[in-house]
Amino acid sequence: MLGKLRTLTVSTPFVAVLVFILVIELPLFGLDLYWQRQVMLIAVYTLVCSGLNLSFGYAGELALGQVAVFAAGAYVAAILYNEGYTDILLAIGAAVVVAAIAGLVSGIPGLRLSHWSLALVSFFFILLIPSMVSIFHGVTGGSAGLPGIIGPTLFGRVLYGPEFFQVTIALTFIWMIIFRNMVVSRFGTILRVLSASPTLTETLGGSVYRLRVQAYVIGALPAGIAGVFYTYMAGFISPDSFTMTLTIALLAATVLGGADSVWGAPVGAAILVLGPLQAASFERYSVAAYGVFLIVVGIALSAGLAGIARRVITKVDRRYLARPSQIESVEEEASHAALSIPGQRLEIRGVTKAFAGLKALSGVDLTVEPGTITAIIGANGAGKTTLLNAVSGVLHPDAGTIKLDDVELVGLKANKVARLGVGRTFQTPLIPKRMTVLEVVETGRLRHGGLNLIAAILRLPVHYRVRRKDREAALAALSFAGLAHLANEDAQSLPLGTRRLLEVVRAVAGEPHVLLLDEPAAGLDDEGLRELDLLMRRTRDSGGTVVLVEHNVPFVMETADQVFAMELGTVIASGPPEVVRRDRRVIDSYLGRRGEPAADVVSTVEPSADVNETGVR
Ligand SMILES: Nc1ncnc2c1ncn2[C@@H]1O[C@H](COP(=O)(O)OP(=O)(O)OP(=O)(O)O)[C@@H](O)[C@H]1O
Q1: What Å distances lie between residue 190 and 209, 282, 500, 576, CA to CA?
Q2: Closest by CA position to 352, among listed 343, 360, 344, 341
Q3: Where are the alpha helices (DSSP H) in 184-263?
Q4: DSSP annotation string for 468-479
Q5: Which residues contact ligand 1 via a Cβ below 6 A?
Q6: Which atom of ligand 1 is nearest to the CA of 387?
Q7: How does pLDDT run across 549-560, given as a tens digit for each residue?
């Protein structure tokens, strides 16, 4: 019973619908005009904050231009009104177009450069508002502003008081549902991956630049719509309505509500409108007050009020709800799911890569056949990770060819290589925050089927089909490694070894044609090694092509079908494990003791702590 109530309230926007019905009926309950305006202002700021949520909270981009887009939407509505076009839907349509253009114009250069350049470019847009208004003072009214914008129409009917209130609340709610559908889809998940690691995003098949632009431009749209509502609500606009103080206040509200939470936006907006910082005594110090507030909230409450709510819900779940039955059903589902891992041939010829004169790879030749596990061993700095980076498109070799069956990979971006079927893991596990194990593994599926943003917004059948397949494959991959019982756990709080294993599972869930594993056994205990071994063997036995870079030589000798040994960027020996283990050059350069079986020697080899320029190890 309690479980059903929990599902009803959290897995559907049940609470949101209830709040919406209550709020939209408030005028009927006698809410006076002053309070109607306050509630509308909350709706307006909710729209702006939700846009900030998307670009800042989910995608991790510090985009300050929301207020400029908000102003643009407001002026669009006011100018149209003065030209005799009073229909609110027309104004919203025009504001959306202008917001998209403003988002593209400020986002494309800002996002192409660096993290901070977007903040600077978007900040510049806010400073531009007074100048633009003054340049076009004929239509904008200059610094005096545009008064008398009262009573928009909807299909020819004038919207006064409560009707305008209800339209504002209804359209804000519709946007929030669209926003929610976006962020709980693959799009929202990959944005969370992006804010954790652009490199991981690329190697899962997402284009970092495209995702950043999408998040920024989509985030601009509600700000434009908010501008329209604001104009009709205030009846007057001037450049003074869109200040730096407002920018900081909205940022503070977003962070307080919870920047990566859908419902954090209305909560933050409500506090902004009704909270103590609105008191007249704060007005003189508002910029400083919001600034201090931002710092304090940023440090003390990094996930905002939504973060606290999430923690409480998780605790209640753990304490009172049927976690074990959830786990059982997960395992049951996993056992019925199937995974197909059709391996492809990987052929590397003459691959060379130098870093400022240092040859990390010098003409490496290596072939890996489907249905095999191939290990690459060698001392620290031999070039193993550089080779994996070259295959996965994280860096581009200076010379040579890398073919996946007949497809040339050299020159392709990492996201394209991933979509062609190269899955990989990293020496330092890259696991985004605030995701369950199952969600993390599902991100490995991105290369199949893309983002389906429209299907996700409209909840089309294809959206559910893709999500179901993602879930089935993720559960199958988890059960491949015997980790299905962890599906509902918070991924980041797992021990390092399990996170390492989780990376492998994520890559396997993508059903890759080639699976590249960079030191997956480091830090694993005996049980972890057994699970890793099981996962790799099952992948191989179902036809997969597995490439393993590893310092744990006993593990390599036990698991691999063939071994390549590298030294200073070249392959010095290759063949079956038993042959390579007895190769004199391999013993001299890596295994350590001439002529001796290496298993007991190499356990002393420590993984290095080098980090290369890509930050990818
Ligand atoms: N981005 C980079 N910039 C400069 N030098 C680099 C970069 N990446 C790797 N190197 C250098 O290239 C050489 C090969 O490094 P790589 O990380 O590929 O070795 P590895 O065999 O994977 O070592 P380990 O076992 O320690 O991970 C090293 O000398 C390393 O310092």
Answers
A1: 13, 40, 20, 40
A2: 360
A3: 186-196, 198-203, 208-234, 244-257
A4: HHHHHHHHHHHH
A5: 355, 358, 360, 378, 380-386, 608, 610, 612-614
A6: 18
A7: 999 989 999 999
307 Cβ contact partners less than 8 Å away, ≥ 6 residues apart: 258, 261, 301
Beta bridge partners of 407: 404
Give me the sheet containing 407-408, strands edge to edge.
358-368, 346-355, 399-404, 407-408
Give the 3-state secondary structure of residue 85: coil
In the reported structure, the alpha carbon of residue 383 is separated from the centroid of ligand 1 by a whole-number distance in angstroms of: 6
Ligand 1 atom 25: the closest Cα is on which residue? Answer: 380
Give the C-alpha separation, 233 to 229, whole Å: 6
CA 574 to ligand 1 centroid distance, Å: 21
Instruction: Report the pLDDT value the prediction gives residue 114, as an integer from 0 to 100.
Output: 62
CA of 525 to the centre of ligand 1 (A): 26
Pocket probe for ligand 1: among 362, 386, 391, 605, the residue whose CB has the most ligand atoms within 8 Å is 386
Q: Which of 548, 612, 616 to mutate to test the pocket of ligand 1 (most atoms within 8 A of CB)?
A: 612
Q: Encode burial over 528-543: b for 16+ CB neighbours within 10 A, e otherwise.
A: bbebbbebbebbbebe
pLDDT reading at 259 higher than 80: no
Per residue, the 3-state secondary structure of 605-616, as one string, reads CCCCCCCCCCCC
Q: DSSP 3-state assignment of 208?
A: helix
Average predicted confidence (pLDDT) for the chain:
83
Give residue 384 CA to ligand 1 midpoint distance, Å. 8
CA distance 432 to 446: 15
2 pLDDT tier (thresholds 50, 70, 90): low
Domains of the chain plus CATH, in order, are 22-241 (no CATH), 346-604 (3.40.50.300)
Q: Which residue among 352, 516, 610 is best mutated to probe the pocket of ligand 1, counting the most ligand atoms within 8 A of its Cβ?
A: 610
**What mean pLDDT comes out for the span 332-346?**
70
Point out the ligand 1 atom lying closest to the alpha carbon of residue 388.
18
From the alpha carbon of 427, which atom of ligand 1 is closest?
Answer: 27
Query: Which span out of 54-58, 240-244, 252-256, 497-501 was modeled with the highest average pLDDT?
Result: 497-501
- Counted residue by residue, the chain has a size of 617
Report the 10 Å Cβ neighbour count for 212.
26
- Whose tokens are 């590397």? That residue is 348
> Ligand 1: which atom is nearest the Cα of residue 613?
1
**Å from CA of 417 to ligand 1 middle:** 21
Q: Which residue among 352, 353, 355 is best mutated to probe the pocket of ligand 1, counting the most ligand atoms within 8 A of its Cβ?
A: 355
Beta-bridge partners for 514? 422
Ligand 1 atom with the shortest distance to the CA of 389:
18
Counting residues of the chain whose pLDDT is more than 90, the rounded percentage is 41
Do 485 and 331 touch, CB atoms closer than 8 A? yes
The model carries a pTM of: 0.82
Residue with the bigger pLDDT between 43 and 134: it is: 43
Look at residue 280 and give its three-state secondary structure: helix
Instruction: Report which secondary-structure segment, H or E, holds 2.
Output: helix 2-10
Q: Give distance in angstroms: CA of 332 to centre of ligand 1.
A: 43
Residue 272 CA to residue 432 CA, distance in Å, equals 30
Q: DSSP character for 544?
A: -
CA 427 to chain centre: 21
